[in-house]
Design brief:
4-stranded antiparallel beta sheet; 5 helices
Length: 242
């Protein structure tokens, strides 16, 4: 039997296509590990479905595999009882290997602190013990006692700072990610809560007119947003107001 050169070329080309497409139907799994789980009822999802119930710490894998190039997004559908869970490396695109680095970390939230309450002139003063792991605290205001909480300048938190470095640090942290600068050391954080970032020495400047020029310090403060201790002290130590 004689096979022409053209036939050989066609068969070789066909074989190349078949080999190239051999991986077209290959699929890859999505999974990872769960840690910190103590409660029950944890359910994960991938791409808004493919629900997977988790009952213990360790490795997990979703049942539905995905093709190369497909997107995946792992989320918590139902948190475990008494815990909250966060997902790391939960989204991406499937490559030519199984996804195994999704990390689900669960933890028991801290107990609510016991608030201490004192009163000042036109102010409520709250105190509480620090909560381990907390990066910020959020207080909600409901002036009429209703279910809707709104913020206004009628409620503010004051931070007394010993140094300009502390003033700069709190001012920067509280105004980032959508916060808003205000006059005279006032600002609003990203949640709309009003804060006063005040140097401790300002109280002495404004109350002790014998040691310096309190009026000049006040006028300097009124021109500022973030308070600058050096500028306030320069005004306070200047000549008295006629």
């Amino acid at each position: 039997m004689t096979i022409s050169t053209k036939a050989i070329v066609r068969r070789a080309a066909l074989l190349g296509v078949l080999l190239a497409c051999a991986g077209c139907s290959a699929t890859y799994t999505v999974g990872g590990t769960v840690s910190g789980l103590t409660g029950t009822g944890l359910v994960l999802q991938n791409n808004g479905g493919n629900d997977l119930a988790i009952s213990a710490n360790g490795a997990f894998t979703f049942l539905t595999a995905l093709k190369k190039g497909a997107s995946y997004s792992v989320t918590v559908l139902t948190p475990p009882s008494g815990e909250g869970c966060s997902v790391t490396n939960g989204g991406g695109t499937v490559a030519s290997t199984n996804v195994t680095d999704v990390a689900v970390t669960c933890a028991t939230p801290p107990s609510a602190p016991t608030l201490g309450l004192a009163f000042g002139v036109k102010e409520l003063q709250f105190t509480w013990a620090p909560i381990g792991g907390a990066t910020f605290y959020r207080l909600l205001e409901s002036r009429d006692g209703g279910p809707t909480f709104n913020f206004s300048e009628g409620f503010s938190l004051m931070v007394l700072c010993k140094t300009q470095q502390e003033v700069d640090k709190y001012w920067t942290k509280l105004t980032e990610n959508g916060g808003e600068e205000g006059p005279c050391g006032w600002l609003k954080d990203r949640f709309g809560v009003s804060w006063q970032i005040i140097p401790e020495v300002l109280g002495q400047m404004l109350s002790d007119s014998k040691s310096g020029n309190s009026e000049a310090a006040m006028q300097a403060m009124l021109k500022m947003k973030k308070l600058d201790i050096a500028t306030l002290e320069k005004a306070y130590r200047g000549s008295a107001v006629a």
